Every structure is written in structure tokens, then in C-alpha cells.
């Protein structure tokens, strides 16, 4: 289900709001519903329910928003028809019996104008779920039923349509005839057990597009206001999406695929998906995503349903995850990764504001059932679970899950246990943090090469909670190592505590640095951008909030940027820093400093497209002039306040010229108490190897910035070839270097930097 933002005013008609209280006293097995919409409102219904008692009881109640005229139990007419009190004396537990009700409905629509049965000038249609009604299911707006997320039954729908109109409904069409009165009568059958909220009925002066998708009959009904060519175009993606979904989740179980348009929004009715007009009217990414989301419910929600509304993330997060899978099917993994990172950025930045606080996925309160946490963070967690166990195991486990649990219900605990069984991996720690807990985890990984033998490397790992004190146990962190030649290899490092030191062995090359989760496999509180910056122009994506501007013929370089929503450690102890943004950047590159590269780090005091970016940490009480840009060369070094300019006043960028690798943070500072590091005095961009590349046997000069340094040269196997302390100014490197690539490391108490020297 997907809501449109512009909700129409409420149309609340007079109605009898009958709501049964005894949830598990009776089970409906089948509904046979004759609904006559030919006269509009009120409409008439004749419903025969086949039920069985689950425990001995003398009466049952049914849910209905409407007026009951008469009731029969096993053919015996009741003298006083009361939908809430239907006598079942003498009927045994498990013994099927029928209840027939003749009733009138009025087209009830919830106060927010969404869920219910809509009688519009162009069409009649229902939306089976309401945002502002308890329970959220509103099958009872159309027919008498047990209206909940667990009672699943089969259905026969017999629709009589308004003159010159035609019906589209859930189920498979059994017959469609025009009577002597000129009215269309159609019969539809749903022979799989489904919940009441998934039964969709509609009528309009429809045109139809018929097709076959992946072997399934396909119908898109549309109205005269729509462009048939566009209708055909928007569904073209299904030719690749349906096979992809079947590969990922198992067979499509619903015999046919159908969509109808609505003005209010989209809803995953079985075989008869209600789709917002906008999604059927353009090739927008949002529209394509919605088409896939609703179809994804054929597995997440319709086939396997959350046990109650508190686990709606299983349905809606799963369906939103399907949108990502569909995007990947249509545009490839690189493109879906960019969409994923954009969405992850938005979730971390805004979901807790939209939903009022950081909420766990499980146990969602009624008022937030259909909130951003359920949909958007839910999708992130399904995505992250995929990354946690790996594609082949993940999708094999989902196949098994949807096969063994088809047409049933599941809660988060049973889902955890089932998937643990099917994957062979204990998912307890994953669920504890991501499903049963609120907030996010931010990981930091950095190499420490001192003392490492060739082919080995030490990685220092740390995690910090974002809006949580919980520890993400049994974390599996994808790490990409980048070598001095730009070569890469990926590894997974395990972290079961707040920090750890891990030794990597058997490395194929000497890594220069490491980058977190380049392939976007986990939903940690960080986004990653690989910026291949050229010699001139602007580069970078907004989801890392760092833009690069190159204006020098020699400035082309590749930057690996991590944007972390974590607290930058070590800043709080700096005198003169009153508070820091709860974000920081890690910038890595094979290029030390870069005189032609300008970096622009986004800050937001108020307004703009990222209004919530620094909410709570940076307010209008801080002037833009009080914002300082902090830099340090690596995670062990102290921070320095560096010289910067800025754009904007309420939101904009801290602008830093001559980009160098290291970590960056923005803080509110008292510049009277802090020295601003002048680029001219200690900037490593002044450090240059001349010439570089060089040729074997020729001397090389290392031009150092002000200060005294220790200089060390390693080969790519990690062997130390040259070492000198107390270097100043111009340092002649007189090592006898043969052709190859070498790592030059300069450091003092303030700077620790590396670059490569190429000998031809
Ligand atoms: Zn949905």
C-alpha cells in the first residue's frame, strides 16, 4: 500500500460501525458475496459465509460498516438480525456452518479520506486498509467479515455494475454477461486463502490492456482520461520484474496480474492492484517503484502476512525492498545502489522526525503502523539482511520461507527463527539490533600498517550506536582494500564488540587504505561515494554531502568518501569547540594533497533540501561564522581547525581548498581559543616528490612542508627500504630503487601521510 500525500477531505457517511470483539472464536473459510453497485449508494449485498467455530460458543459476531436487513444461520432466519450477536447454539467446534446476511452499505470512507469504499464520478473502488482506523483493515466497508490480519478465506465475488460500466475485481474472472436490463454481471473467484483487506472490487467505464507477463495473464484497466500508450509503457518493466521476483522469492501464486487506477493511492489487492493515477501516467521513478512495490506484496503481505499490525514492516518493508529488487532487474546493481544510498540517507536523516522518534521495527504503535520506519527503514533492514547472509543464501531462504509458510501469518520472532533455520546462520543478534531495537550503527574501519609483515594488515574496527546504546553483535562488515596501484579486493570482517583489532592475512597486495561497504550491502549509518574527479568540473553525490570542484589540469583523482552519521571522536576534548555536528567524513585517495581540488562540506542551519540534516545540533543560535572545519590526517591524530570559506548563511557548504586525505568534521567553535592551521605552514600539499614518476638510478627529492619529519619508504610487499628521521625542507632520497611502485610515508606529531613513488 502506498499513500498519496494530498489526501482528499473526508467523506464520512452515516454508518453502523459494527466491530466484533471475539477475535479467535470463529474462522471464516469462504465468502460468497453478491454486491450490486448498479444504483450507486447505498449498495446492496447478499453475503453467504462458510465458517467453523474454533471453540465452543453460543454466539459469534461479524464486522460490518452498514445496515443488516436479515440473517440466516444454516438456512434458519433469525428473528432479530444483529451482526454482533449471531446465535450458534448447537453448532460444534470444527463443524462448517453458513451465515447469510442481506445488507446495505453506504460507501464508508475513513476520516482521512483513504481507506474504505469510494464512489467517485468516474469509478467505484475500495481501498482495503485505512490509516486512521482501528483495526487498519476495512474489508467491513464492503462486506460482513472477520476483519483482521489473520483470518484468511477464499472468495466468490458476484458484481453487478452500473449501467454502461464494467467491473474489475480480485480473483480470476469466471463469467461476464450483459443482462436484459443492460447491466454487466461478473463472477470472480479467489481460490487461495487471503485476508479481507486484500479483496478489491471496482467498476468504471473501463478500457483494458490485455497481455501476458512471464506466462501469467495480465490486465491493466484504465479510464478515458488516460493515455493507452503510456499505460502500456509503464507496465513494460514487469517483463523483467516478474521473472526476477520469481527467481528471488519463488513462484507467483495468484494466477493473474491486474491493475486498476485510483485517485487516492495504491493498494495491493490480490489480482486487482489499485494504482495511483500518477503511477499509471508517467515513467517517473516513483511510479515505477510503486508498481513494483504493490506487486511485491504478492509475496510480502499477501502470501505471508504479518501476524499483527505491530510487525507491518514484514509486509511494507518487504514490498519496498521489492522496489529495489525491481530497479536492479531493470537498471543493474550500480544504479540500484545509488537509489539505495539516496534512500538510506533520507531514512537516517528524516525517519525519526517523521515518526516522532527512533522506533524499533517490531512492536510498532498503531499510530505509526504505516509510517516511514515501517516502510523505509523496513526496506533497509531487508536489504541489510540480504547483505548479512549473502545473495544466494538469502534468496534460497526466502524461497523456503514463502513455500513453507505460504498463506499463513508470521511475527518477527518466528521470522527470525525460520530464517535462521533456512540460512543456517543465527540471526538472533541481527534481529536484536535491527528489528527489536531502535536506531542505527556506525562502523569505522582504519588500517594500521606499523609492524605488519608483507601480505598482512591490521584493521582497527569500532562501532558506535546512533540513537541507541545497544551493541550490534555479530556484525559482519564488508571492507574494500585499495592498493597503491588502485587495485581493490573485498573482505568481510567480523565485529562482536564495540571495538576490535583484526589482522588480515594472505593479502594479494599492500593496501593503501580501506573503505567501508562500497557495494552498499549493509544499512549502517554511513553512505559511501566513489568520486572519480576529472581535471575540471563538479563531482560528488548529495547523499554524502560532499561536493568536489576541480579546476586544475593536474587535479584528476579518485576519492573514496565515507559520510558517517556518528559522533567524531576526539573532538570533545578540544578547547574552543562548544559542540560538533553528529556527522563526519572520511576522505581517502591515492593522492596526498590536491592543489586543484576544492571540497565543499554541507552544513544546514535551517531550510533547503536537507532541512533536517543537522537538526538539533546546529541551530540559528550559531552563526555561520562560528562554524569551524576540523581536519585530521587519520583516526589517531589530533584534530586541527583549518582555514575555510563558506557559501550560504542558513545552509550551504564549508569550502576547503587543496583537498587532502583524512577525516573532516564541522563544529561550533570559539576561534579565539583555537589556532587556525594555515595551509601554507603545515599543509602536506606542499610535500612533493620530484620527479615522480622517476627512473631507476636517478635521485628523487622530497619537498617537505614546514616542520621536521620522519620519512620511510616501503615496497609494495611491505619491506622497509629507506628510513630517515629529522628531515626538513628538501630531502634527497638516495635509496637504490629499482623499477616498481613504492610507498613513501612522512610523519611527525601532527601529520601522518603517505603517497606512492613510481620508478620506471
Ligand atoms: Zn505496500
Q: What is the percent of helical residues? A: 10-25%
Average pLDDT number: 91
Oligomer: single chain
Low-confidence stretches: 5-16, 679-685
Q: How many H/I helical runs?
A: 11
Number of strands: 52
**Structural class by SSE content:** alpha+beta
Which strand-content bin applies to the residues?
35-45%
Strand order of the largest sheet: 8-7-10-4-3-13-16-15
Biggest β-sheet description: 8 strands, mixed
List cofactors, ions and other ligands.
zinc ion
Quickly count the domains.
Answer: 4
**Which outline best applies?**
elongated
Alpha-carbon Rg, integer: 32 Å
- Determine the N-to-C terminus distance: 62 Å
Description:
The protein is an alpha+beta fold and 760 residues long. The protein has four domains: 1-201, tricorn interacting facor f3 domain (Immunoglobulin-like); 306-438, Neutral Protease, domain 2 (Orthogonal Bundle); 441-682, no CATH class; 687-759, Immunoglobulin-like (Sandwich), CATH 2.60.40.10. It is 18% helix and 38% strand. The chain contains eleven helices and 52 strands. The strands form 14 sheets. The protein has an eight-stranded mixed β-sheet, with no helix packed on it. Strand 27 and strand 28 form a beta hairpin. Zinc ion binds next to helix 5. Zinc ion is lined by residues 1-2, 268, 293, 297, 316, 319.
Amino acid at each position: 500500500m502506498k499513500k498519496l500525500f494530498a489526501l482528499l477531505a473526508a467523506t464520512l457517511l452515516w454508518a453502523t460501525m459494527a466491530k466484533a470483539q471475539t477475535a479467535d472464536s470463529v474462522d471464516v473459510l469462504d465468502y460468497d458475496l453478491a454486491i450490486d453497485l448498479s444504483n450507486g449508494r447505498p449498495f446492496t449485498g447478499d453475503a453467504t459465509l462458510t465458517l467453523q467455530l474454533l471453540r465452543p460458543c453460543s454466539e459469534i459476531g461479524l464486522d460490518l460498516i452498514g445496515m443488516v436487513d436479515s440473517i440466516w444461520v444454516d438456512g434458519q432466519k433469525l428473528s432479530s438480525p444483529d451482526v454482533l450477536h449471531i446465535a450458534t447454539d448447537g453448532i460444534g467446534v470444527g463443524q462448517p456452518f453458513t451465515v447469510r446476511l442481506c445488507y446495505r452499505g453506504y460507501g464508508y470512507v475513513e476520516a482521512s479520506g483513504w481507506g474504505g469504499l469510494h464512489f467517485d464520478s468516474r469509478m467505484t473502488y475500495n481501498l482495503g486498509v485505512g490509516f486512521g482506523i482501528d483495526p487498519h483493515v476495512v474489508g467491513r466497508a464492503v462486506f460482513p467479515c472477520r476483519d483482521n490480519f489473520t483470518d484468511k478465506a477464499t472468495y466468490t465475488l458476484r458484481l453487478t455494475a452500473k449501467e454502461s460500466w464494467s467491473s474489475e475485481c480480485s480473483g480470476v474472472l469466471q463469467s461476464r454477461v450483459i443482462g436484459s436490463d443492460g447491466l454487466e454481471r461478473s463472477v470472480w473467484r479467489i481460490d487461495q486463502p487471503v485476508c479481507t483487506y486484500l479483496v478489491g472490487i471496482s467498476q468504471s467505464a473501463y478500457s483494458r490492456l490485455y497481455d501476458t507477463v512471464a506466462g501469467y495473464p495480465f490486465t491493466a484497466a484504465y479510464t478515458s482520461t488516460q493515455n493507452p500508450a503510456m499505460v502500456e509503457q509503464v507496465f513494460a518493466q514487469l517483463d523483467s520484474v516478474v521473472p526476477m521476483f520469481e527467481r528471488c522469492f519463488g513462484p507467483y501464486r495468484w494466477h493473474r496480474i491486474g491493475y486498476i487506477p485510483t485517485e487516492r493511492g495504491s493498494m495491493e489487492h490480490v489480482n486487482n492492484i489499485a494504482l495511483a493515477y500518477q503511477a499509471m501516467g508517467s515513467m517517473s521513478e516513483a511510479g515505477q517503484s510503486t508498481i513494483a512495490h504493490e506487486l511485491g506484496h504478492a509475496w510480502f503481505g499477501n502470501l505471508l502476512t504479518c501476524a499483527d499490525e505491530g510487525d507491518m514492516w514484514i509486509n511494507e518493508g518487504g514490498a519496498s525492498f521489492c522496489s529495489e529488487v525491481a530497479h536492479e532487474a531493470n537498471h543493474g546493481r550500480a544504479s540500484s545502489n545509488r537509489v539505495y544510498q539516496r534512500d538510506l540517507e533520507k531514512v537516517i536523516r528524516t525517519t525519526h522526525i517523521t515518526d516522532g522518534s527512533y522506533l524499533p521495527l517490531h512492536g510498532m504503535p498503531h499510530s505509526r503502523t504505516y509510517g516511514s520506519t515501517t516502510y523505509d527503514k523496513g526496506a533497509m533492514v531487508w536489504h541489510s539482511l540480504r547483505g548479512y547472509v549473502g545473495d544466494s543464501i538469502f534468496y534460497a531462504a526466502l524461497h523456503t520461507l514463502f513455500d513453507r509458510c505460504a498463506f499463513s501469518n508470521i511475527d518477527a520472532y518466528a521470522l527470525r527463527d525460520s530464517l535462521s533455520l533456512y540460512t543456517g546462520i543465527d540471526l538472533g543478534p541481527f534481529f536484536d539490533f535491527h528489528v527489536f531495537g531502535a536506531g542505527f550503527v556506525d562502523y569505522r574501519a582504519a588500517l594500521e600498517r606499523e609492524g605488519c609483515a608483507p601480505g598482512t594488515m591490521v584493521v582497527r574496527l569500532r562501532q558506535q550506536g546512533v540513537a541507541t546504546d545497544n551493541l550490534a553483535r555479530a556484525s559482519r562488515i564488508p571492507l574494500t582494500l585499495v592498493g597503491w596501484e588502485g587495485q581493490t579486493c573485498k573482505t568481510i570482517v567480523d565485529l562482536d564488540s564495540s571495538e576490535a583489532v583484526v589482522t588480515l592475512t594472505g593479502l594479494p597486495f599492500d593496501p593503501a587504505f580501506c573503505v567501508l561497504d562500497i557495494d552498499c550491502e549493509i544499512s549502517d549509518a554511513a553512505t559511501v561515494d566513489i568520486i572519480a574527479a576529472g581535471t575540471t568540473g563538479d563531482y560528488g553525490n548529495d547523499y554524502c554531502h560532499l561536493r568536489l570542484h576541480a579546476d586544475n589540469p593536474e587535479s584528476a583523482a579518485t576519492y573514496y568518501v565515507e559520510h558517517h552519521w556518528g559522533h567524531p571522536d576526539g573532538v570533545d576534548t578540544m578547547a574552543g569547540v562548544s559542540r560538533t555536528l553528529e556527522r563526519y567524513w572520511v576522505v581517502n585517495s591515492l593522492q596526498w594533497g590536491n592543489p586543484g581540488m576544492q571540497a565543499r562540506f554541507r552544513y544546514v542551519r535551517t531550510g533547503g533540501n536537507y532541512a533536517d540534516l543537522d537538526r538539533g545540533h546546529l541551530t540559528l543560535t550559531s552563526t555561520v561564522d562560528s562554524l569551524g572545519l576540523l581536519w585530521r590526517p587519520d583516526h589517531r591524530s589530533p584534530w586541527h581547525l583549518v582555514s575555510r570559506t563558506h557559501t550560504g548563511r542558513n545552509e550551504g557548504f564549508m569550502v576547503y581548498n587543496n583537498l587532502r586525505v583524512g577525516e573532516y568534521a564541522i563544529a561550533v567553535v570559539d576561534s579565539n581559543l583555537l589556532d587556525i592551521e594555515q595551509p601554507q605552514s603545515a599543509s602536506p600539499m606542499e610535500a612533493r616528490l620530484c620527479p615522480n614518476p622517476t627512473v631507476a638510478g636517478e635521485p628523487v627529492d622530497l619537498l617537505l612542508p614546514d616542520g621536521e619529519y620522519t620519512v620511510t619508504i616501503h615496497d609494495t610487499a611491505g619491506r622497509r627500504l629507506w628510513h630517515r628521521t629529522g628531515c626538513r625542507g628538501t630531502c634527497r632520497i638516495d635509496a637504490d630503487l629499482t623499477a616498481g611502485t613504492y610507498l613513501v610515508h612522512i610523519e611527525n606529531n601532527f601529520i601522518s601521510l603517505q603517497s606512492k613513488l613510481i620508478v620506471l
